[in-house]
Design brief:
The chain is mainly alpha-helical. Helix content is 49%, strand content 6%. The protein has a two-stranded antiparallel sheet. Strands 3-4 form a two-stranded antiparallel ribbon. Strand 3 and strand 4 form a beta hairpin.
Length: 173
Amino acid sequence: MLTSRALIRGLRPSLWRSLSSTSALQGGHAKAVDALDASVPQYNNSVDIPLPDIPFVRVPSAEQKKLKEKEKGPWSSLSKEEKLSLYRMSFELTYPEMRQGSGEWKTVVAGVLFFLGLSGLLVWWQRIYVYGDVPHTLSKEWVEQQTQRMIDMRINPVEGFASKWDYEKKQWK
């Protein structure tokens, strides 16, 4: 009896977490994925939002704690390296570092060129091994014979093919 109650109490929170949309999301194939809780302060590097909710270093080391105490005094007594260290405790990146481009465009261009080359090889392979020879109906002689046959049959004489042929002079109008 006691074990069944403990089992039920143990299952109840996990069941609630899997059904609740705020603590977990159900991904494809019923795989639980943690959701981002926007009500909790969080650190983000963004040019659009210059001041994050919390500092970059949440738990400072002993050396960083000493530096924080020294920060409360006059800033003229701080060296340039100490000021930089204080900045890095609050922010991970500077504005120029945030604006700096990545080399991701090179990967995208390489991927596009790779798939274009792969497509070209596929088209070349199909032209050689899949498609047969060009049909004889596309040869110049056949097209001339077919055109003459259509003229002789007077195909569409009002506005079409035969209307552009002069039957008395035997030439195109």
